[in-house]
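pinging the channel bc i need a second pair of eyes. not urgent but kinda urgent?? the chain im working w is below, pasted from the shared doc
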Amino acid sequence: MDFNGRNAIVTGGANGIGFAITKAFLEHGANVVMVDCNRAKGEASLAKLKENFQNIHYVCADVGSYASCCEAVAQAEALMGPIDTLINNAGISPKEKGWGLPIDELSVEEWGRVVDVNLNGVFFFSKAVSKSMKQQRFGRIVSMSSVAGKAYLDVCAVHYSTTKAAVIGFTRHMAGELGEFGITVNAIAPGRIDTDMVAM
């Protein structure tokens, strides 16, 4: 794989799956901006990657805020140029003692935050990069869904499964809408992977 000259944003890129994606892009020559709301983790991951790569940057942003997402894209474009690759990886799955809460115990506030991060963040970033990608007539958008979006998974709560199912529907629609502009839109639906989020 040759990603030389490609400019990628990876949301949730400072930890877990996102960090592995970021590192893989760098190894194959891409310029990458990691977006993560955890500044301490983002800066630590940036320092670690800079030991071997110079084409890596970090932007602190909350993917659940449209204004924050737009600012992150603007910063990424200032650092690298037009964005041609977006990885919508950021996601949360709140648990107690390793298990998602049942619906009758789930707070409205927790539901809202999961929807903001896991679903709205995918929309916000995709919207923010789509105009430039259409002008370039080239783009790649990949969003992280989950097996929980395709079948019942008892370890997570209903908000996580719902948002991951919605990501699949979003992806299908955007693939049809943006395909004529040379933009491909795909989703990945991994199973449980040993990351900090799974251990929570």
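so The radius of gyration is 16 Å. and The longest helix spans residues 108-136. — does that match what u expected or am i reading it wrong
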